[in-house]
Amino acid sequence: NNNKTMIFLLTMRYEYANLYHQATDWYNFYQLIHSLGITGNDYEIIFLDGHARSQIDDAWWHGINAPYHFLKQLNDGQPICLQNAVFVSAGYVGGISLKTVHKNCKTENEYVSQFGEWFLSGFGITPHTQRQYGNITITLVHRRDYVAHPRNMKGRASRKFGDEKRVERKIRDAVRDMQDVYVNIRSIAWSDYTFREQLEIASST
């Protein structure tokens, strides 16, 4: 890109197919572009890692609202000079990482509180809930075996419920006596939905 005003945001993705770790990376991008006042189409993303593609790569395009490139694909692998580049810290030390949240859980952060709606807006999703009207939706997420990326071709998922039906029954029993409240319980597996559909489900829970 010959645009001298373009800012390239460089990052190393360590857990590229893990939703939690990717979310911490997305937050770091959000905080950086807003704290530096980077707006519009003035920035693009460059992945410094050599990871393969994963099913959540497109979230970078929609959620962060910027095109992304893989370093090895730039300039046919030849040296390249970027006039404006910023290194974005890894999600491990981001504002929504568990380490940071546990340390600063009592400190309000405007970036953290605004990140969710901003990310969803990139997908055209507006969070909605009926809780104020006494309607509560509980989403029980089951883990299924599936191939998330080429480095785990066995596709075996861990930390599954030992008895899914029993878990659902326990939840129904726990909310049965709640007065003036309608509770809708739905059981799903993320692997059955696109990433956008997953966001729609989560934002309405």
Report on this model:
With 205 residues, the chain is of the alpha/beta class. Helix content is 30%, strand content 16%. The protein contains six helices and six strands. Helix 1 (19-35) links the parallel strand 1 (7-11) and strand 2 (43-47). It is globular and about 65 Å long. The model has no long low-confidence stretch (mean pLDDT 82).
Describe the protein's topology.
Elements: E1 7-11, H1 19-35, E2 43-47, H2 58-63, E3 68-70, E4 85-87, H3 98-103, H4 110-121, E5 135-142, H5 164-175, E6 182-189, H6 195-203
Helix pairs in contact: 1-4
pLDDT averaged over residues: 82
**What is the chains' assembly state?**
single chain
> What helical percentage do the residues reach?
25-40%
Based on helices, strands and strand pairing, what is the structural class? alpha/beta
Overall spatial form: globular
Spell the H/E element sequence: EHEHEEHHEHEH
Give me the Rg, rounded. 20 Å
- Head-to-tail CA distance between termini: 42 Å
Give the amount of beta strand, in percent.
15-25%
Number of E-type strands: 6
- In DSSP terms (H or I, runs of 4 or more residues), the helix count works out at 6
Profile the largest sheet.
Answer: 4 strands, parallel
Strands in their spatial order, largest beta sheet = 3-2-1-4
**Low-confidence residue ranges:** none
